[in-house]
Write a structure and sequence with these properties.
CATH class of the largest domain: Mainly Alpha
Distance between the termini: 17 Å
CATH architecture of the largest domain: Orthogonal Bundle
Structural class: mainly alpha
Mean pLDDT: 92
Oligomer: single chain
Helix content: 55-70%
Shape: elongated
Number of helices: 11
Number of domains: 2
Order of helices and strands: HHHHHHHHHHH
């Protein structure tokens, strides 16, 4: 089946199962950025605990820089790699104040120059901090787009979002990003995907034994 038809089936399914995203389009860009840095290599519940703990004490670059690095590491300990993340967070805050007047830049190139900020973190910040339509590629988006044949298994991680953008209408990018995260937790799981109950099995090469 052509990739375009698979993409259309995916969007229809995600909209019917999860509906249009309801939470606010734009959130505080600084909190989005720092939360995404915290989320690296840890589980969502750990990120939420650490974010709540940190932002209850300091929620702006200026406030965070008043905290010793050891105190930041203590607050964010649930996420793991706390010392390195605390160091990156302090340096991010310094750069934001020195170069951008304490504001988060709305440019992917500038965001990716910040310590600990890669493609995914930059995209998430733009999408949920500034309302810029994009498809941040987390583990679920990456895995499912390959299983469905929307992206080649041989594609590099940085090629995933551009390929998805070609196949999916701009107005559906946010739906796809949020929907694939939920779909990846419930059905198209990393281990033991539930293909027998998946409504997309009929269009999925992996479900038909042609993928991974």
């Amino acid at each position: 089946m052509r990739r375009e038809r698979v993409a259309e089936a995916l969007v229809r399914f995600l909209r019917s199962r999860y509906g249009e995203p309801r939470h606010r389009w734009r959130e505080d860009p600084f909190k989005v950025l720092i939360s995404c840095v915290l989320s690296q290599r840890t589980r969502e519940e750990n990120t939420e605990r650490a974010s709540r703990a940190l932002f209850s004490v300091a929620s702006t670059p200026e406030e965070i820089l008043r905290l010793p690095e050891e105190r930041i590491a203590e607050l964010i300990r649930p996420v793991g790699f706390a010392r390195q993340k605390a160091k990156n967070i302090r340096r991010i805050c310094e750069i934001l104040i020195e170069r951008y007047g304490g504001k988060v830049p709305a440019s992917k190139e500038e965001l990716m120059q910040l310590p600990g900020v890669g493609e995914k973190t930059a995209s998430v910040t733009l999408c949920y901090g500034f309302g810029v339509p994009c498809i941040p590629v987390d583990t679920h988006v990456n895995r499912i787009s390959r299983r469905l044949g929307l992206v080649s298994w041989d594609a590099r991680i940085e090629e995933v979002e551009p390929e998805l953008r070609k196949l999916i209408r701009r107005e559906d990018w946010r739906l796809v990003n949020l929907g694939l995260v939920r779909f990846g937790r419930e059905i198209c799981r990393p281990v033991g995907p539930r293909c027998e109950i998946c409504p997309l099995a009929r269009v999925c090469p992996s479900a038909r034994g042609k993928g991974r």
